Amino acid sequence: MKPVCSHLALVVTLLLLSAASGGSDKVKNITAVLGRSVTFSCALNNGDSVEGLYIQRVINDKEEKFINGFYNNPLPMEVPEQYQNRTTVNKTGLSVEMRDISVSDEGLYTCVVFINKDPNIFKILLRVKAEYSVPTITAVCGQRSDGGAGQACQLSCSAAGGYPRSAAGWAELNQSLIKVINNWSSADNESKTWTVNQTIMYTCDQPTNISCAIGGAVSENVTICERNLFSLVVIAAIAVVLVFVLLVIFVVVMKCCCGRQQNPGDPSEEVGMPLAECHSQQQRV
What we know:
Blueprint: H1 2-18, E1 23-33, E2 38-41, E3 50-59, E4 63-71, H2 81-84, E5 87-90, E6 95-98, E7 107-115, E8 118-129, E9 136-143, E10 151-162, E11 168-171, E12 178-187, E13 194-204, E14 208-214, E15 217-218, E16 222-224, H3 229-260, H4 275-284
Parallel strand pairs: 1-8
Antiparallel strand pairs: 2-6, 3-4, 3-7, 5-6, 7-8, 9-10, 10-13, 11-14, 12-13, 14-15, 14-16
């Protein structure tokens, strides 16, 4: 039975490759999520009786590989092993479902519908996508090396498990102040999904809320260029000390002034009298 099926598949393939009538140059774009399923729909907008349907994979822009389908004859279709357990034909809906989508499934397909033995060919471009993980963002800020105002921050953004390859983008940052230090990405050998990382230097002189995005996934907000709490505490402590010193100096000066106003012949009076009495005495004088 297999040689007969193989011969039939070969004849059908040659027929499809040579058929020019009923074809369409338009390409239908569909997107599948990695690991899930997608449906190749070949439904027509007419009531003609359909005799058969094939889904084929276009390889190297010319060669076509049969995936699955049906034809109204007693001979069964020989489905390639890699598609036997993950494709299902819907004769009523004129479609083929493909499950457990991988990156290798991405590419151009042809959907061939036979009406009165005439092939109607439609092109379908399958794209595969996988959501990136929520990006992680790190920020390390410090004084600028050039001694300028503000701070210099080294920011890193990374995410994994996405497809296709994407780049990092930064929100709320002045693009003219960004200096890219490193762009790094790597594809997993098995899943072909990507891990993406970018590190930049950014200068700012006021608190700024930032986030990064990779392939549509957005990180949490992070605040950079915050005022240094330790510096604020030190400044406040210095201010308190200065105020205390000034108060001490004021008290000492006032005591000295009051001491000079005392009667030097009266030993019973203290050299330093209370500040209020000193003030009253100055008013009487």
